[in-house]
Amino acid sequence: MIKEAVDIKGKDDNTERVLVCITSQANSERLIDMAAETADMLNGELHILHVQRGDSIFNNSDTPRIINELCQYGGKKGGSIHFYCDEDIAECIGKFVFEKHITRIVIGQPPKCDINDTEGLKNAANKVLRCVRGNVEVIVVPRSQTEKCAHICLKTDFN
Q1: 90-127 per-position pLDDT tens digit
Q2: Residue 154 pairs with which residues in a beta bridge?
């Protein structure tokens, strides 16, 4: 078991915790920017999470460089950076949200989902949040920089 370097208080302390889920692509900087802005606005914590499918975060030759750049960028924004390897990325993210008492999540627009399709976005988010209890706001950042972000409030008390 890996012990986190960051001390996370219990969920009853009313601290806002903003999570941004990134991939090993340079455009993840936009997601980090949105999450950092949200965390600053709420005077909350910023957590940056990358989950790589499999057992290594270095599955292609560019990954170490991109990950290093994103770590440096996220660190400058005040974020705590977390990397995991898992076969089920959605479940790993959901467990992280639950265990760290995350209150808001910033994600990129899913590939096959229109940014204005609220139900489609909710369904995509529910795949990740199926093991979370409580309320979580999901901020979906569109692929196009000219479109506005979608904000989805989910009640995640699934049985």
Answers
A1: 888 888 988 899 999 998 877 777 767 777 777 777 77
A2: 136
Question: Does residue 22 sit within a domain?
Answer: yes
Query: Are the beta carbons of 138 and 110 closer than 8 angstroms?
Result: no
**Residues 16, 42: contact at Cβ < 8 Å?**
yes
**Residues contacting 16, CB < 8 A, separation 6+:** 39, 42, 43, 44, 45, 103, 104
Residue 15, Cβ neighbours under 10 Å: how many? 15
63's tokens = 């990954």
CA distance 130 to 39: 24
> Strand, helix or coil at 137?
strand
- Fill in the amino acid letter for 10: G
CATH of the domain at 34: 3.40.50.620
pTM beyond 0.85: the answer is no
- Count of the separate structural domains present in the chain: 1
